[in-house]
Specification:
The complex is a heterodimer of chains A (466) and B (286).
Chain A (H helix, E strand, L loop, with lengths): L16 H4 L12 H8 L9 H5 L6 H9 L3 H11 L3 H7 L6 H4 L11 H14 L15 E5 L3 H12 L3 E5 L8 H4 L8 H13 L3 E3 L10 H6 L5 E4 L5 E2 L12 E3 H10 L17 E5 L3 H12 L4 E5 L11 H10 L2 E3 L2 E8 L5 E14 L5 E5 L5 E3 L3 E4 L3 E2 L3 H5 L25 E3 L2 H4 L4 H20 L2
Parallel strand pairs in A: 1-2, 1-4, 2-3, 4-16, 6-14, 7-8, 7-14, 8-9
Antiparallel strand pairs in A: 5-15, 10-11, 11-12, 11-13
Helix pairs in contact in A: 2-4, 2-8, 4-5, 4-8, 5-8, 6-8, 9-18, 13-14, 14-15
Chain B lengths: L1 E10 L2 E7 L1 H6 L5 E5 L7 E9 L4 E7 L3 H7 L6 E2 L1 E6 L11 E7 L3 H13 L4 E7 L8 H7 L2 E6 L6 E2 L2 H12 L4 E7 L2 H11 L6 E4 L15 E4 L2 E4 H4 L2 E3 L5 H8 L3 H14 L9
Parallel strand pairs in B: 8-9, 8-12, 9-10, 10-11, 12-13
Antiparallel strand pairs in B: 1-2, 1-6, 2-5, 3-4, 3-7, 4-5, 13-16, 14-15
Classes of the chains: A alpha/beta (466), B alpha/beta (286).
Bound molecules: flavin-adenine dinucleotide (2 copies), iron/sulfur cluster and FE2/S2 (inorganic) cluster (FES).
């Protein structure tokens, strides 16, 4: 056998940083057919593929990559979808570098196979070619399932259960389905048309989606089961409650939770104001607090809204930043300044109640804490004032208490997450299952999707026994 | 889509609309509000449910055209539809039979949200004294409805063009003195922020519990964004889920006033563009 020719990991073309930092179009532009095949051919087709172990839903990685290498893109998409119902989304937003790609055997000597980019390629090809087929649905069972929340967890449950022959209605509090995928993650990272296509696909299979339905208010979970005839309920209401710092000046004008900032910009399209009615502050000097994906999205949105300086303030070091490495890289390329080992102490306002600055303190890393990360400690006397006019707080989200508060039979942990069996999503209430961020606390799209998959199987079994 | 079933003009720039929303009509309780969005480009705005008809499946809104969205809403007619309509939101008013009189105060457009509360308090057997006020006679709304649900109704206008001349706070002070502060169990005051602030100031020395309904800027109104945060008793609350009613003696009205001015420039710009573009548009109310 001829020695395998070494091909480097194929880069994906991107919009120029200077240009893209001022528009909301998607940053990476996708692989061409040739590049995708070239990249796919790098895969060794391992007998015991390490990559799969890194994938929370065990996507058939070498198999789908093999199909791309053969030019069978439809086959690749089909293989992907056996395990992952949202490959076009996951190919864009999964933290591959800490999942599949981290374990890829090629990564030991050279760079790992670009699994995420190939996933995106196959899913995009299928959607763009109009090749998304409506699968055959199992015969109708006559059972009705209510899904609360149209995020990745809820969309996955709905798609799986409708194929199994059950009647499915999704209840979504906002006016658009998609959860964080529409209100949180910006257009430049995940075009809304992709989420829309997933939603249309579900509708074409017969899933009913009722927007503007806040469960706990418009209807309660008990009413869905007792009066509206739903045989089972899946709760996928996410972790939508923003955490604030609890420091002085947090209610000044110009201080946003990342949820508000991103919702205004993404869901309400404030970046198109006044064509769209919802406004958002177009700060000149914007500080974002936090080091995760949410912080990167906010800091990059600030640039696109016209900021001259977008400063990310994070209390630990770069190594500890939880954001996807690609997002940090993209953010820096676009001009986001990272102010690491820095913690805000208070936000300063002018007489009109607007933000005029933020006092911070320098930090140093001490002993590791419970999470294994080194605990940041303030350095005495290192206080300084950062001149900013807008502050976006992106330090975390927890589950909204509305559903547990109005459904006493559902038990929650001390963090407010719903207690559910890890394998089935079964909660403490008969016929009620839960999964995604509402169970795990703020996590990832793929984990929410995986939890949805497991819950759908369990709900199907539960309904068969009824 | 949510149809506008009927529409009426109550005064200059003040309108009443019945909207077909059976799910909300069925669940609504006094004190709840809804969020609406007129069309795809629209903003989500909160409005209190002033009344409902569970049988017909409609809820009643009373609103004042103050900016782009409310002006656009005012231009819609019977038979038109709203794209999004969600509710009932917020905590309902705490209703109980008190030992003592309850006083319901409505200022300007605030009479509309006070009305269902006065009804609920009356229905459960309370003695209800209502005080309603406006700048002048033609701005006064829902006098008949308030009369029907109150044991006593006091009407004030700032300019004296109708009823007593003066502010609602003066009438409120008189009522508390007349009834005796220990006999007043509760005051509910809803209206413009300054009016609520002064009602709370009026009752504070008497130690009479005073509920006010706060109207901060909102986005989702499900507790997801924190746009609506207000400081009450030194603590941050989300008005959309923790309120909108709070103890008026504990509310930081200064902060609320400043937060309401956050988008003044954008609002003025949106209104200007709208007025220029919609000149000659349909105005079924003029
Ligand atoms: C800005 C941002 C960026 C992110 N970036 C990434 C990333 O790059 N990669 C990644 O893997 N993950 C990322 N995440 C995390 C990821 O988006 C979430 O983990 C995932 O969306 C969770 O899915 P879910 O279905 O559990 O909940 P959600 O997506 O939160 O959806 C929950 C839905 O339920 C609805 N709902 C809530 N309460 C009710 C109710 N009472 N009645 C009816 N409906 C209700 C909500 O409106 C929402 O639509 C990011 C999150 C944010 C906020
Ligand atoms: C819980 C709640 C219930 C409400 N109920 C009613 C009601 O029953 N009837 C009614 O007419 N209005 C009510 N409001 C106020 C209403 O939501 C605003 O008037 C509306 O959002 C203004 O939108 P706009 O685009 O027309 O005006 P904008 O252009 O947004 O604002 C124009 C002017 O109105 C002020 N304003 C903006 N938002 C608010 C607000 N939330 N409250 C008060 N003033 C505001 C601005 O400071 C500005 O001066 C309520 C508000 C809340 C939070
Ligand atoms: S570990 Fe890497 S080389 Fe091996 S199958 Fe997975 S992607 Fe291909
Ligand atoms: S309006 Fe968003 S939390 Fe209250």
């Amino acid at each position: 056998m001829a020695p395998r020719e070494k091909t480097p990991r194929q880069p994906m073309p991107e919009q120029e940083p200077k240009v893209r930092a001022r528009n909301f179009d998607e940053v990476p532009l996708g692989y061409s057919h040739e590049t995708a095949i070239k990249e796919a051919k790098r895969c060794l087709q391992c007998k015991k593929p390490k990559c799969r172990q890194g994938c929370p839903v065990e996507v058939l990685i070498p198999q789908f990559i093999g199909k791309i290498a053969e030019g069978d893109f439809a086959g690749a998409a089909k293989t992907l979808k056996e395990k992952n119902s949202l490959p076009a989304v996951c190919g864009r937003v999964c933290p591959q570098e800490t999942q599949c790609e981290e374990l890829c055997i090629l990564g030991k000597k050279e760079e790992p196979v670009a699994i995420g980019r190939l996933e995106r390629f196959a899913a995009d090809w299928e959607r763009n070619e109009g090749k998304v087929e409506i699968p055959e649905l199992a015969p109708a069972t006559g059972k009705k399932v209510a899904v609360i929340g149209a995020g990745p967890a809820g969309l996955t449950v709905a798609g799986d259960l409708i194929k199994m022959g059950h009647e499915v209605t999704i209840f979504e509090a906002l006016h658009k389905p998609g959860g964080v995928l529409v209100y949180g993650i910006p257009e430049f990272r995940l075009p809304k048309a992709i989420v829309q296509a997933e939603v249309e696909y579900l509708k074409s299979m017969g899933v009913k989606i009722q927007v503007n339905a806040v469960i706990g208010k418009t209807r309660t979970l008990q009413e869905l089961m007792e009066e509206d005839g739903f045989d089972a309920v899946f709760v996928g209401s996410g972790a939508g409650l923003p955490t604030f710092m609890g420091i002085d000046g947090e209610n000044l004008n110009g201080v946003y939770s990342a949820n508000e900032y991103l919702t205004r910009s993404n869901l309400m399209k404030a970046y198109l104001f006044p064509e769209y009615d919802t406004p958002v502050a177009r700060g000149k000097r914007v500080a974002t607090l936090g080091g995760g994906n949410v912080a990167m999205d906010s800091a990059r949105t600030a640039l696109r809204l016209g900021a001259e300086a977008s400063i990310c303030v994070y209390r630990r070091g770069r190594e500890e930043m939880p954001a996807r490495s690609e997002e940090i890289h993209h953010a820096e390329e676009e001009g986001v300044q990272l102010n690491l080992l820095t913690n805000p102490i208070r936000i300063i306002g002018d007489e009109m109640g607007r933000v005029s600055g933020m006092e911070c303190i320098q930090m140093e890393l001490g002993e590791p804490d419970d999470s294994g990360r080194r605990r940041p400690q303030p350095i005495k006397g290192s206080e300084f004032v950062l001149e900013v006019d807008t502050v976006v707080i992106a330090i975390g989200n927890s589950p909204n208490p509305l559903i547990p508060a109005t459904t006493p039979a559902i038990e929650t942990s001390k963090w407010g997450t719903i207690i559910a069996d890890e394998e089935t999503g079964k909660t403490t209430m008969e016929g009620v299952y839960a999964g995604g961020d509402v169970v795990t606390g703020a996590a990832t799209v793929i984990l929410a999707m995986g939890a949805g998959r497991k819950a759908a199987t369990a709900i199907d079994e539960y309904l068969k026994g009824k | 889509m949510f149809e506008i079933v009927s529409k009426e003009k109550l005064g200059p720039a003040v309108f009443r609309m019945d909207i077909a929303a059976p799910d909300i009509a069925r669940k609504h309780q006094a004190g709840n509000f809804i969020m609406l969005r007129i069309n795809e480009e629209g903003e989500r705005i909160p409005l209190t449910v002033a009344d409902k008809d569970a049988e017909k499946g409609t809820v009643t809104l009373v609103f004042q055209a103050v900016g782009k969205t409310s002006a656009e809403l005012a231009e819609l007619c019977e038979g038109d539809s709203l794209l999004d309509f969600v509710g009932p939101l917020g905590k309902p008013t705490h209703i109980e039979k008190f030992n003592g009189v309850v006083v319901c105060v409505g200022g300007g457009i605030g009479v509309a949200p006070v009305h269902p509360i006065a009804c609920a308090l009356k229905d459960i057997g309370n003695r209800v004294i209502s005080i309603i006020g406006a700048r002048s006679k033609e701005l006064l709304i829902m006098e008949e409805e308030m009369k029907a649900t109150s044991d006593e109704l006091i009407v004030c206008t700032d300019d004296g063009s109708y009823g007593k001349q003066g502010f609602v706070t003066e009438a409120l002070d008189e009522v508390i003195r007349r009834e005796g502060k220990e006999n007043v169990a509760l005051v509910v005051a809803i209206g413009p922020v300054p009016m609520m602030r002064f009602c709370a100031k009026t009752t504070e020395p008497y130690g009479v519990h005073t509920e006010v309904s706060l109207n901060p800027i909102m986005v989702d109104a499900t507790g997801m964004c924190g746009a609506c945060r207000v400081t009450v008793g030194g603590e941050t609350k989300f008005a959309c889920v923790d309120g909108p009613e709070f103890d008026g003696h504990k509310v930081d009205f200064d902060e609320l006033t400043k937060r309401l001015a956050m988008y003044k420039e954008s609002e003025a710009r949106a209104m200007k563009i709208y007025e220029e573009a919609s000149h000659g548009g349909k105005r079924c109310w003029e």
